[in-house]
Design a protein that fits this description.
By secondary structure, the protein is an alpha/beta fold. Helices cover 31% and strands 24% of the residues. Bound molecules: adenosine-5'-diphosphate, iron/sulfur cluster and magnesium ion (MG).
Length: 335
């Protein structure tokens, strides 16, 4: 059995934008290991949601998958028929979206939605499905599941809707959960509950791709992190390495404002400058205009490939930052 449950290779997903092509995902290779939480982080517009949607072939018009493969248990999801994919969605790979209320069926009470998902995909009768739905809602820390099950999505708060969405996603015990900004619209208490739930799922063997622009969430949750910039992976490695020894100037800029010792929850700060126009990406490194380490080589050569610079640590940069581990030099901070 491969250690990877999902293997994305050379994925490019583009949008038609008038006469131009917008390269939202541009040659991304990424693996999800069994039972891990992989964090995918990057500024708004860098292609995170497009990456997530590509996995289940759900990219909306005018988007299209230009090339690549996405293997799940040895089968390429991009080569599956519509009906094969439909069977797999939800049952093997579940997805939760940022806007949970919009992701729910407005005219069906939430208990029925969970039960329906189970009877449609699984071999269960209505009675058992209903009972499981109540258990799942209970597991989400939602008090009085019975009453909640009878409510319609518009009667729920954002936090409740998000948890219902997770309950639906979990109803079929999928192998993979893709969570796209699952907590960014929620207050801290609810966010903490949902993150706790995701952690519990991971501990039960679910492999999770957790997409967020929030480095605090990544620090708390992820086993490994992929940093995206302008449709590509800029850096990838285990969370400890990424936070203590980032090598890509973009990762460094993202982390720069995080408190070094107490990595409390912090929003992604603005990196100097603006993300590039994705319809006009240069052949060279897209970070050049914002990069404090850019050299002539960066301006002349094609965009740097993602290379393994130490075991499990990948960086796409011609001039990576070499910064000592911050935990080694805390006393020198003021000098
Ligand atoms: N439906 C769409 N049509 C055209 N362009 C889109 C569409 N969805 C996203 N994009 C563009 O693709 C790029 C990546 O967007 P997205 O995947 O949503 O990034 P993120 O989730 O990181 O914010 C952005 O430039 C965005 O404007
Ligand atoms: S390749 Fe050059 S411009 Fe791009 S991030 Fe590295 S140093 Fe900066
Ligand atoms: Mg998004």
């Amino acid at each position: 059995m491969s250690e990877f449950i999902l293997e994305i290779e050379g994925l490019s997903t583009h949008y038609h934008d008038g006469k131009q092509i917008l390269k939202a995902v541009d040659g991304v290779s990424l693996t999800l290991e069994r039972g891990e939480i992989l964090g995918v982080v990057g500024e708004s517009g860098c292609g995170k949601s497009t990456l997530a949607l590509s996995i289940l072939n759900l990219v909306p018009y005018p988007g299209f998958i230009e090339s690549g493969s996405i293997r799940f248990e040895g089968r390429d999801l991009l080569k599956m028929s519509k009906s094969e994919l439909r069977d797999l969605r939800g049952r093997d790979i579940a997805m939760i979206f940022q806007d949970a209320v919009a992701g729910l069926n407005p005219i069906l009470p939430v208990g029925d939605q969970i039960a329906e998902m189970m009877t449609a995909h699984g071999d269960v009768n209505k009675y058992d499905a209903r009972r499981s739905a109540l258990t799942l809602l209970g597991n989400m820390g939602l008090a009085d599941a019975e009453r909640l099950a009878g409510r319609y999505p518009f009667q729920l708060s954002g936090g409740m809707a998000q948890r219902v969405m997770i309950a639906i996603a979990m109803a079929l015990r999928p192998a993979i959960l893709i969570a796209d900004e699952p907590t960014s619209a929620l207050d801290m208490t609810v966010q903490a509950q949902i993150l706790e739930e995701l952690r519990r799922l991971r501990n039960n063997g679910v492999s999770i791709m957790l997409i967020t622009h929030d480095l605090g969430v990544i620090a708390q949750m992820a086993d490994r992190v992929a940093v995206m910039y302008a449709g590509r992976i800029a850096e990838e490695g285990d969370t400890e390495t990424l936070f203590h020894r980032p090598r890509h100037p973009y990762t460094w800029a993202l982390l720069d404002s995080l408190p070094r010792i107490n990595q409390e929850i912090r929003r992604l700060r603005q990196v100097q400058g603006r993300p590039p126009d994705m319809t006009k990406l240069p052949a060279q490194c897209a970070f050049v205009p914002r990069c404090t380490k850019a050299t002539n080589a960066c301006r002349q050569l094609d965009s740097p490939p993602l290379e393994e610079i130490e075991p499990g640590h990948f960086v796409a940069c011609y001039n990576p930052v070499y910064q000592p581990d911050p935990s080694d030099d805390e006393e020198d901070d003021d000098s």
